[in-house]
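Human:
Care to share another protein and its fold?

Assistant:
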Amino acid sequence: KKPEQSTGKEAERKRINKELANIRSKFKSDKLEGYQKKKYVCKLLFIFLLGNEVNFGYQEAVNLLSSIRFSEKQIGYLFVTVIMGESHELMPLVIQAIRRDLESRNPTFNTLAMQCVANIASREMVEQLGMDVVPNLLISPDTNAAVKQTACLCLLRMMRVDPKIIPIEKHSSRIIKFLNDKNLGLVTAACSLLEELSHTHGEFFQSCLSEAVQKLSGIVAKSHSDLHDYSYYFVPGPWLSVKLMKLIQCYPIPNDAIIKARLGEAMETVLNKAAEPSKSKKVQHSNAKHAVLFEAINLIVHLETESGLQVRACNLLGGYLTHKETNMRYLSLEGLCNLSTTE
């Protein structure tokens, strides 16, 4: 019987207390199999998510991290991520388990461990595991794109904890090369990491500018049918396009004439597509299409010298001032205010 089937808070509380007592008694048995441990740890997690205090079962959850079964290890990591704090007395054991999974040849275990770190990374975790993530997984030729993608996001969290612990600058060229990868999931994750690194180690990653412009130019020129897995309501790669434009804005205007010309052409393409009739009446299409447009206008403001693009952007934004959606009118006014600051 589930707690939500009980009538009233008092009945629910009695039911939960009875279940907690049952789980506590089960954990005292030495004959508990992995599946049963997983089941009862999962129940504790559910009870916690209902808003109840859970003060036991931590050791059993940590023990699940050593399982060779994915489902058991997954529940163990989920419990650690949701319930255990960085100051918990069992955290050293958790870090040991994470290190084993980071060193494993199993890419699924690698990913589970990095997802846990990305959610609850503490300074102690960064100091002990940082060098396992970077050389062994992020830039290793033996890891696949999915593992590298997770490693990018894991490293992003680590850099936010303390950007000085990991000597990331010596791997700059290899991280920048992720922008050329065919796997757009990896490119998207790399954009998030590079945007953070532009603030903490900008001088070492400035060469990513040309790669970002090249990738952005290729994406905005494609139709939605060219990017089956990364199109959203007829808009090709909207999230990646926005991330690339944000990354480009982290650095000064490029001096290279070829890069500037390519970037100008990409912005021209975005404005042309924005002026085309909508391919769908659904709000998701409108949101994705205009997300790319408004970020492109921010980038045009950043470029400053492209007066032709500025005029076109002003005309487009002026047309949205009478839009029926209040948010569109607000964003249009904000875009016009930003454009008015350019010379």
